[in-house]
Amino acid sequence: MKSPMLKKTIKNVFYTLVVCSVFSVTAQSPVAAIQSKLASKNLLVDITLAGSTLIAVGERGHILLSSDGEQWQQANVPVNVLLTSVDFKNDKVGFATGHDATLLKTTDGGFNWSVSNYQPELDKPLLDVKVIGDNVIAVGAYGLFLQSFDAGQTWQDSFQDELLIEDDRLYLNDLKEYEPDVYQKEKQFMLPHFNNINVVGEQLFIAGEAGFLAKSDKDGEDWQIIETDYFGSYFSIINVDDSQFLAGLRGNLFKSEDQGDSWQALDTGVKATINSAYHYKNVTYFFANSGNIFYTSNNTDINDYELDDGKAVMSGVVFNGFLYLATEAGIKKIALSEFTSNKARD
Amino acid sequence: MFVKSLEKFLFKQRAIVIGVFTAITLVLGYQASNIHLDASFNKNIPLNHEYMKTYVKHSDDFGGANSIYISVCDKNGDIFNPEFFESLKSVHDQLFFIPGVNRTLVSSLYSPSTRFIEVVEDGFAGGPVIPADFNADKAGLQKVKQNIEKAGLIGRMVADDYSCAMVSSQLLETNPETGEKLDSIALAQQLETEVREKFENDKISIHIIGFAKMIGDVASGAKDVVLFFAVAIVITALMVWIFIRSTVLTILPIACSIMAVIWQLGMLNSLGFGLDPMSILVPFLVFAIGVSHGVQMINSIGKRVHEGFSAKQACSASFCTLLIPGGIALMSDTVGFLTLLTIDIGIIKELAITASLGVAVIIFTNLFLMPVLASYIDFDKRFKALPADSHDHLWEKMSRVTKPKNTAIILVITALLYGFGWMKSQEMKIGDMKAGAPSLHEDSRYNQDTFLITDRYAISTDILKVIVEIHDDNLDDDIAYDCTSHATMDLIDQFQWRLSNVQGVQSAISLSTVAKVVNTGYNEGNLKWRSLPRNSSSLVQSTARIETSTGLLNRNCSVMPIILFLEDHKAETIERVISSIKAAKAEMETEQVKFLLASGAAGVMAATNEAVEAAQVPMLWYVYGAVIILCLISFRSVKATIAVVLPLFVVSTLAQALMTYLEIGLTVSTMPVIALGVGIGVDYGIYILSTMIGELRKGNTLTHSYFLALKERGSAVLFTGLTLAIGVSTWAFSALKFQVDMGVLLTFMFLVNMLGAVIILPALASVLWRKEK
């Protein structure tokens, strides 16, 4: 950690539209995660399946794998930053995001990871990653947006200035013309945090900070803001059949039946922030803070399952008849039979 | 020569001698009556140990506050019922009104400062966890439960399983009502009567821990010592009477030994020392040693009276024969105890001074005064007519140990015992081997409360702090600096995480931990942000509001401890954690960021354990060195020295093996026992061998010399061993664990050393003086 703070070297990297570039690891090299028996008991943020292997990511570069849900093995990870999201193309190739704009890639089903992108000097975390075939999109703080069309061989980053609010865009355009240096600086923190990205066919949705919701009909080439009535942050957007759910701060949950153009509020009854959503066999789960899991099987009535320890639930995935959870206190599992519509706790 | 002139001096002016002793006793008795109980924490720690220098250096900022924790538990295991909240409120209010409690820091669910903060759309919102309009109905309790979770109080203020809630505070240095230094002992009593007795019932249990409470419990346990002292005096008196069958000769050694105790206590007070729970045992030792030497004296006097001498003749003759062996024995005790001064722990030094003073005093009270007093006794005819010694057949049997066959058997068994003892003694552990407060029994209320609290909450009383010092020439004293350096904060975080993974570490906290949580808060409570921001201004935002009272940083952030909560303070746990810290330090320390050991209760124990371990071998060298030199001087014979010292050495090794067996660790309180045991154990050998050598030099055979030695001193030696053993064995009933340990070990040392002197010593002698057979 003795190497001096790297000077900002990202001049000319961002242009208004898409700039192609293959990122290399910067001079400030990351510190590898250490093996830890506590990893499965500490903060885990996301969990998914790669084939029939459970894979969870969390703080300090922890990536845990399990083929039975009982024994967890820690992967070799070249970074020790907080990892925020993980997604797989198939049972071998997958991607994970994290702080310091970290993007990790595995080609062996999650046992070993390599750095695709690492930019601590940005001081921005990547917050979500989605893989659809060879198309990989990672989004993060202050509108960070990285995309690869070749399964992570090359990456592009882009700055969606059409997603700025009108005043900001005009201000930035002025700056770009007259004070390019200031423009580069200002631009960095102008966009809201992109918390979650969802892909529905050719449509992309981004849910983000302070009521931000955006949609692209053509794989991210054009973006438009969708106005919603809520001004708190959204952390998750998911499509279930023909409906879409948008979830965020303090138990706010909305449903759309028209591809996101209009939204109606659903009552969760508890003011716990929803961190992510997951759909499995007719049931949609919303994982929330204070140990709450909201779930619905008819897309309308919301039930609440509450974990005793009140720890935040970040993500979940179904495996072998259990819902496996990534929580503030590590891995947990709940039998699916617990989630029946009439079993809502009082 | 010297002895003769001293004898003349003492016995010519008997009245004056008695007068002088009476005067001294009166003065010192007055001093002794003013002696106070004194249990200072610093006495128990090796202040010059490297860790303790760090501890002392930072004790103002991170000394570890004197806290008191009261856990109120619902016996059905669920706090969410109206009765519980009623009780919790009562306990909170009661603690508030106990003098000496820092009222502003009384904290529980009911304190106004216990608030939750939640993220709302436009920032933060919050309120008291128990709202002003709290009603203990279902909805109200549900609301409180949610607030508890939002405020993150589980594990700290509420038990992990919701079965208990905590009321805690810190104690003031002085009692605000009297303006005097806070009396921990009285406060502990008040907590007992005004909190526990008042609010504990069939639904609620109360559990109290904290340094002041522990001191209180230890002090009340130490008071039982007075009772043990009385019991020991009665039993000893009875035994002396059976031994000598004369009431006056029974009173004499008892009275002179009590006089020695009075002198010792008086001198201690004059020197400015107090008694603490550990050195309170020394008067016992002094009394027991006094009686044992007194018995030698009355035994000798009695024998001469039976033989027909007048009281005065018998007394001056006994004085002459016993002054040298008795004086040498007591001097070797004194020197043996003084060697403990080399150990750099206040309490052991104090023990060295207390014990050596007491033993030195016995030379005057029991060797000088006692024969002078005894010379006034008008022995009745019945006593004079008693046979001189009726145990000849026993002594004859015992002297057979010097026969070649028996000698061989004894020495082989001794060698085997030694070999076995040596192996076991290698397994002896350093430090405390049991969980809980080491001074108290595992099943004491205090320790049971400790176990409950550490079990149900995420806190521990076994705290080890690694002090992180920032050395930066550019560091400005007045400006918070290094909590804004990502590199530093991240290094602390990595160090902490490494240690969190060490077996025995329950949890850990540092400024980095809190900064991450604050950063999460500034990012809408989204755990995807529970990370240290790289940007200095964001980092400032995350650390600026953390108070120095949290104990996580000092004023300018140049010192930031990493606090480790250990599962227990067993020696092996501490050792494992300390060596992990050293390994991590070796890898991660930089020029700017230093990781220093150690503070916190477990840090102190680590230093003490290391100091004890380091002192053990030198201490034994010094004790044996002193004993050997005294033996060489008094016997002027290498053979005699070997015959006395070798059995002692075997017995101390066996004592260490016994410690392994009984799971007694080598601690500040048990380490001196070996030195005390050797110092006192040597007396037996000196008494036996001094007569034996005299007879050998007269030309007697070895067996006959030993027989004569037994005839002269045997009954007194056997008796002494028993008296000493009984005196210290009463400690086994003490409420304080270390007194029990010391009692058991000393009893063993006294008894087995006595056996060594009458069995192994003659067997060795018969090998060493083969020619004289």
Describe the 3D structure:
The complex is a heterodimer of chains A (346) and B (773). Chain A is mainly β and 346 residues long. Chain A is built from two helices and 28 strands. Chain A has a domain at 42-155: Methylamine Dehydrogenase, Chain H (7 Propeller). Chain A is 6% helix and 42% strand. In chain A, β20 and β21 (264-266) form a beta hairpin. In chain A, α1 packs antiparallel against α2 (180-187). The longest helix of chain A is centred in the middle third of the chain and has 13 residues, at 166-178. A four-stranded antiparallel β-sheet of chain B has the order 7-8-6-9. In chain B, strands 4-1-5 form a three-stranded antiparallel β-sheet, sandwiched between helices. In chain B, strands 2-3 form a two-stranded antiparallel sheet. With 773 residues, chain B is α+β, with helices and mostly antiparallel strands. The A-B interface holds A 1-2, 31, 34, 36-38, 43, 45, 59-60, 80-82, 84, 99-100, 120-121, 123, 125, 127, 195, 209, 230-233, 235, 249-250, 271, 273, 275, 289-291, 309-310, 312, 314, 328 and B 118-122, 146, 148-150, 154, 160, 487, 490-491, 494, 497-498, 500-501, 524-531, 533-535, 538, 590.
